[in-house]
Amino acid sequence: MTRPAWRVLVADDQDLVREGFAMILERAGAQVVGQARDGVEAVELAREHRPDVVLMDVRMPRLDGIGATRAVVSEAPGTRVLVLTTFDLDEYVVDAVRAGASGFMLKDARPGDLVHAVDVVARGESMVAPALARRLLERFATHPPGPSPGAAVWDRVSERERAVAVEVARGRSNQEIAAELFLSEATVKTYVSRLFTKLDLGDRVQLVVLAYETGLISVGGADSP
């Protein structure tokens, strides 16, 4: 199946990095409608071109990626943001999701993974890089947020929905979850949709962050009691 020619805006303050991402995406068939050197320019270009996806670096001058994400989501309806981060910037990921990002990837991702992530986000889904999901989980385990009254939120869901949430938080796809829990992919999609509704979440990424913040899963992979 031919991949749609998604319209993408690339925002990164490093010229070589930005142009490299643009080249990778163009070779994959995407249309790069603009390149931004800072957060302010990213917002302006997103407002002007209304791309399908903004590939957004976290650390940029004038306006960082978090503020730029928040502005793009507000001022360019229909445009989704895929945030790029590095292992030493994990603390920004939760803020990016709260700002409205639809996904996050590691900045050193392979070209094919980057193209796949843009494709997933452009289609209206959410992207959580498994490696980054694991890294975030380790960070929460090492520096736990402490007792959170938010943990009671899981009382709203069924045992099976909770199991699905655990697998989503581990960065697994619907296909992988279906195999792990002996369900059909359609059933997994139904459970994920119910989780969004019951927990008042916008997408898969927000579900992952909620699982981390409330201690639903631990580094050993076991869900919390």
From TrEMBL:
Organism: Nocardioides marmoribigeumensis
Keyword match DNA-binding: yes
Name under which the protein is recorded: DNA-binding NarL/FixJ family response regulator
Pfam assignment, any one: GerE
HTH luxR-type domain mapped to chain residues: 150-215
UniProt cross-references to SUPFAM superfamilies, sorted A to Z: C-terminal effector domain of the bipartite response regulators (SSF46894), CheY-like (SSF52172)
InterPro entries associated with the record: CheY-like_superfamily, NreC/VraR/RcsB-like_REC, Sig_transdc_resp-reg_C-effctor, Sig_transdc_resp-reg_receiver, Tscrpt_reg_LuxR_C, WalR-like
Alphabetical UniProt keywords: DNA-binding, Phosphoprotein, Transcription, Transcription regulation
GO molecular function, one term: DNA binding
Spans traversing the lipid bilayer: none
Record bears the keyword Phosphoprotein: yes
Chain positions found as 4-aspartylphosphate: 57
